[in-house]
Specification:
The protein is of the alpha+beta class. The model has no long low-confidence stretch (mean pLDDT about 95). It has 2 domains: about 120 residues, Probable inorganic polyphosphate/atp-NAD kinase, domain 1 (Rossmann fold), CATH 3.40.50.10330; about 130 residues, Tumour Suppressor Smad4 (Sandwich). The protein has 5 helices and 18 strands. The N and C termini lie far apart (about 50 Å). A 6-stranded antiparallel beta sheet has the order 7-6-17-14-9-10. A 6-stranded antiparallel beta sheet has the order 13-12-11-8-15-16, with no helix packed on it. Helix 2 links the parallel strand 3 and strand 4. The longest helix has 14 residues.
């Protein structure tokens, strides 16, 4: 029996309109709604109700299962959960009928020790709150790319370019570009600038000197400590995440609205 996996932000209140839309577009069509992926064999997709944080936590599962991820924004600001409450019913219907507007998004695959993580937005190497400046060596394949001195480094996907990367002064990159963005955080040298590179070779980052406290943060919710002698590898994940787009608005319309860019007729 076909099913959709429903993931709701913890503590969130689901509007009645969303509840009715879920019933009409899934249950009334004979599509089961489950909240545990192990309880369904034929998953059509994952529906996230909440904000970007909830969707980021759900992205690795959708990627591993190879199914579409649909995010409905129940908060104030959502770049990833771009579908509004008003658009939800149409988006649910499109998913149920197999005609959802799906966009493939590049994911980062991050290797730290024996652990592997996937990031839709970014991975960041950061000094602790009481730590001094850290020094990060980055190799692109077998070649030295740069040594960054400062508070840290963001390795971002195009999707994540409007997240932490943007706050740190990095460029906005269209999500369909096949690139990876490196943005230093509060660099010691003003000449240290963001760089956009090809994802065809693996990046490797390591600390040059011992530091008091250094963290590897993946999509804002995975936190690992990084010590001298350890390497973190970043590469483009095989395949892509299938992210359901808004059924009524394009990327630039959403970007203008989220960033408050003025739009006028010319």
């Amino acid at each position: 029996m076909p099913a959709v996996l429903l993931i709701i932000k913890q503590g969130a209140s689901v509007p009645e309109g969303i509840k009715k839309a879920l019933k009409r577009q899934f249950l009334d069509r004979g599509i089961t709604i489950v909240q545990d992926a192990k309880k369904a064999e034929d998953l059509l997709g994952i529906v996230v109700l909440g904000g970007d944080g909830t969707l980021l936590r759900s992205a690795p599962l959708a990627y591993r299962l190879g199914i579409p991820l649909l995010g409905v924004n129940l908060g104030r600001l959502g770049f990833l959960t771009e579908i509004t409450e008003e658009e939800a019913e149409r988006a649910f219907e499109d998913l149920a009928l197999g005609r959802a507007a799906v966009e493939e998004r590049l994911l980062l695959e991050i290797h730290h020790g024996k652990e592997v993580f996937w990031a839709l937005n970014e991975a960041a190497i950061l000094k602790g709150p009481l730590g001094h400046m850290i020094h990060i060596r980055v190799n692109f394949g077998e070649r030295l790319l740069s040594i960054y001195h400062g508070d840290g480094l963001i390795v971002s996907t195009p999707t994540g370019s409007t997240a932490y990367n943007l706050s740190a002064g990095g460029p906005i990159v269209h999500p369909q570009c096949d690139v990876i963005i490196l943005t230093p955080i509060c660099p010691f040298m003003l000449s240290a600038r963001p760089i956009v590179i090809s994802p065809q070779e693996e990046l490797q980052a390591s600390l040059l000197y011992k530091a008091q406290e250094v963290h590897l943060i993946v999509d804002g919710y995975i936190n690992r400590t990084l010590s001298l002698g350890e390497r973190v590898a970043f590469k483009k994940a095989p395949g892509a995440l299938k992210l359901v787009r808004s059924p009524t608005r394009d990327y630039f319309e959403i970007l203008r609205a989220k960033l408050g860019w003025a739009a006028r007729n010319v």
